């Protein structure tokens, strides 16, 4: 059995601000938006960045106050490449509503962790060329170019006992899960 994560429903306080942040800053699109059970009921909005999914997020306007949630640390999204991770960092910094921006690498991924305007944790990441045994976490410098960052990542994590090409790791996972 293969299980694919499909979407998350997040309770929100300010629907318009959350939609604005997720569409203008993170590139999502609203696919539907309406009261959940007719006029006078809480509003629900559906957002996606994937044309093959009706929604990756649903926002339900029922949260009483914003601030850090204690139910979920973060949701993670794989993006195409390091350029997209860096562009996300730039967009977040320019917009200013995201907080707790933290570029973190686990050796196998270059990530930007942050919280949205209502305190929900998010991670946007791309794979590095390497697999590294986990857990690992250290900050990385977004000003490095890809060649510099790759060399730094290999130097930083190369002595890890499970260090190797990420493609080899994924191949072994495919065999294991087949």
From TrEMBL:
<dbReference type="InterPro" id="IPR000486">
    <property type="entry name" value="Xdiol_ring_cleave_dOase_1/2"/>
</dbReference>
<keyword id="KW-0223">Dioxygenase</keyword>
<keyword id="KW-0058">Aromatic hydrocarbons catabolism</keyword>
<dbReference type="GO" id="GO:0008198">
    <property type="term" value="F:ferrous iron binding"/>
</dbReference>
<dbReference type="InterPro" id="IPR037523">
    <property type="entry name" value="VOC_core"/>
</dbReference>
<keyword id="KW-0560">Oxidoreductase</keyword>
<dbReference type="InterPro" id="IPR004360">
    <property type="entry name" value="Glyas_Fos-R_dOase_dom"/>
</dbReference>
<dbReference type="InterPro" id="IPR050383">
    <property type="entry name" value="GlyoxalaseI/FosfomycinResist"/>
</dbReference>
<comment type="similarity">
    <text>Belongs to the extradiol ring-cleavage dioxygenase family.</text>
</comment>
<dbReference type="GO" id="GO:0051213">
    <property type="term" value="F:dioxygenase activity"/>
</dbReference>
<keyword id="KW-0408">Iron</keyword>
<dbReference type="Pfam" id="PF00903">
    <property type="entry name" value="Glyoxalase"/>
</dbReference>
<feature type="domain" description="VOC">
    <location>
        <begin position="4"/>
        <end position="127"/>
    </location>
</feature>
<keyword id="KW-0479">Metal-binding</keyword>
<protein>
    <recommendedName>
        <fullName>VOC domain-containing protein</fullName>
    </recommendedName>
</protein>
<dbReference type="InterPro" id="IPR029068">
    <property type="entry name" value="Glyas_Bleomycin-R_OHBP_Dase"/>
</dbReference>
